[in-house]
Structures are given as C-alpha cells and as structure tokens.
Specification:
alpha/beta; D-Maltodextrin-Binding Protein, domain 2; 2 domains; ten-stranded mixed β-sheet; two-stranded antiparallel ribbon; globular; binds D-malate
C-alpha cells in the first residue's frame, strides 16, 4: 500500500490491504524527528529509544534533528508528512503548551497526529554558569532583582520546556530577564558552560552530569518534591515560589492518518524500549524516568496530552506569555 499526502488531501492507494501493509511494516528505515538540536535532552532520549525500538522492529530507527521555534517547525513538518509510519515524532510538554503560547499554529497538536505513547518524565533544574555570583535560591532571587538588565536566560525557543520554565520563573519572581533563544538546550548548554549566557532552566537529562561535575551551578528542581539524584536542590515550590511545578514528559506521535495497526506496532516497540534494561539504566543515570509500559500506549498519550493542554492553557494565559 502506498500512502501519499498532497497538500491537505490524504489519499490511500491500496496495492494491498491495510492488514498486509501492517504485517510487512516496517520494511525500511524509520525516521524519528527530534524538534530540537542535537545534544539536548529530547535528542538524548530519542537516541536511546530509537536504538531499542529499532532492535524490536528489526529495522533501523534514525534520528533527524529539525530544531527551531520551540519545536513547532518540526511539528508542522511531521503533520504534513506521509502517514505511513516511516516518519514519527518525539516531543515533550511543549506539544501541549504550543497551542496556548502561539496565536497561530499551522497544525493542531491533537488533530494532526496519531499518539503512539508516552515515553519519559523528568524534572527541570534551574542552573547557572559556574561562576554566577548567587550561591543559593535566596541569593539568586535578590541578585536577579538588582541585576535584571545584565542577566541572560537561555531557552530553546517559544514552545520549549526551557522557555516555559523560564517564563513561569520570571512571572513568579516578577522580574524580566533578557532571554536568549537557541535551537535546543544542547547548544544553549555549550554557551552556559562557556560563560556566554548566565542562566537556564533545563531538564535533568541535560544538566545532571554537569551539575555533578561542578561545571554548572544548580539552584533548584521544578518537581514539587525533592529529587533523589539531586538531594541538595530544593523544589522551587518550597524555596519561595509556592505552587511552582514543571514536569517535562515526552511522547511519540505519527502523522494523522497513519494506519492503526502500524501505530500499534510502533507503540509495541516503544513499550519494549521503556522497559529495556539498557534504556532504563541510562535514563536513571540522567534522572529521567521511563513511563510504565502501560502508559507507552496511544490511549494513555491521547488522554495525557488533552489533560496537559487543558492544564497549561489557563496558566499560560494568566502569566501572559505569548508568541507572535
Ligand atoms: C527544551 O528546552 O524544551 C528542551 O530542553 C529542548 C531540547 O531538547 O534541546
């Protein structure tokens, strides 16, 4: 069966039945689109999952990085891709916040995709270049009030988790800093390590190693409760910013119209990946939790995405965060 998409028109040219198409799937390499630059947390998670999913599907799953605009460029591209199972997409909580952050998106986070399953969950961490003056959250809050003009805050563009975290933080402390967008927090981290930018709020997946080796200074986690791998860091919610909470979850999607039997095969491969011992161990080293197997399913992701869109809409509107 060949599935082609021409503009908004999707047509199926059936050379065989959908069942036999799914039975043969996959018979070539699958591309997993990462909506951020290489070297960041989404890329790290994607590469671990791709390897394990490929083992399960007995086909290569390759990662392609399509960074920019907080993940929305990649999302729009995947939304327009052939719904044949050979182009799939990983995105995080940003897929749920983009509809509220952007006045106009040329895709729908719900209607343009078939959910494959949830994948991981991680805390974000508020970190600074290692010689940043403040030694703890209290000092940081006073420092920022007095030095807001000269303090820079990196993010991966509007729609990125680092952007959301930074905006929530600035809104909570009532202080606007100069934000510096990158195509992902991989390159942003390079600049933080090099001292070209001051602060970033990014997933532990990307920061834990640098925190442990002392290459960045860490102030707090964004989970509501303390995190075992970072026992010295207080949750922002108990460090002067009550109610602050951000958990960065990732999920996998296929373009709308991908046959259900193909989506189910991909979901089976994802379920294999989240319980793969190598994946679990590597994620644990990055303070990132794979979901339980029964959440790596289309239904679980569909319900979670909807709940997160409903949750973040009012928070984003209240904080007055928008992209043009
Ligand atoms: C984010 O800020 O959304 C991510 O950390 C981006 C990335 O994975 O590079």
């Amino acid at each position: 069966m060949k599935i082609k998409r021409a503009g908004s028109l999707v047509w199926l040219a059936l050379a065989a039945s959908p069942a036999s198409y799914a039975a043969d799937f996959p018979d070539k390499t699958i591309t997993l689109i990462v909506p951020f630059a290489a070297g960041g947390p989404t890329d790290t998670i994607a590469r671990l999952l791709a390897q394990a999913m490929g083992n399960n599907l007995k086909q290569q799953v390759i990662v392609e990085n399509v960074g920019g605009a907080g993940g929305t460029i990649a999302a729009a591209r995947v939304a327009r891709s052939n719904p044949d199972g050979y182009t799939i997409f990983i995105h995080h909580v940003g897929h749920a916040t983009a509809p509220s952050l952007y006045r106009k998106l040329n895709y729908s986070s719900i209607d343009s995709f078939e959910p494959i399953g949830l994948a991981t969950d991680a805390t974000s961490t508020l970190v600074a270049r290692k010689d940043f003056p403040a030694k703890d959250v209290n000092e940081l809050l006073s420092y920022l009030k007095a030095n807001k003009e000269k303090t820079t805050l990196a993010n991966a563009g509007i729609g990125a988790a680092s952007h959301l975290c930074g905006m929530l933080f600035m809104s909570a402390i009532g202080t606007e800093l100069t934000t510096v967008p990158y195509k992902g927090t991989g390159p942003a981290m390079n600049d933080l390590l090099g001292g070209q930018v001051d602060l970033m709020c990014d997933q532990a997946t990307n920061t834990l190693g640098h925190i442990k080796s002392g290459k960045v200074k860490a102030y707090a986690v964004t989970y509501k409760t303390p995190v075992a791998s970072l026992p010295d860091l207080p949750p922002l919610a108990s460090a002067g910013l009550p109610g602050f909470e951000l958990s960065v979850w990732h999920g996998l999607y296929a373009p709308k119209g991908t046959p259900a039997a193909v989506v189910n095969k991909l979901s089976g491969a994802l379920q294999f990946a989240v319980k793969d011992p190598t994946v679990k161990q590597r994620l644990a080293e990055l303070s990132t939790d794979p979901v339980a197997e029964n959440r790596a399913t289309p239904d679980a992701l569909r319900a979670h995405l909807k709940a997160e869109i409903d949750k973040w809409g009012p928070i984003i509107r209240k904080a007055g965060i928008y992209a043009e």
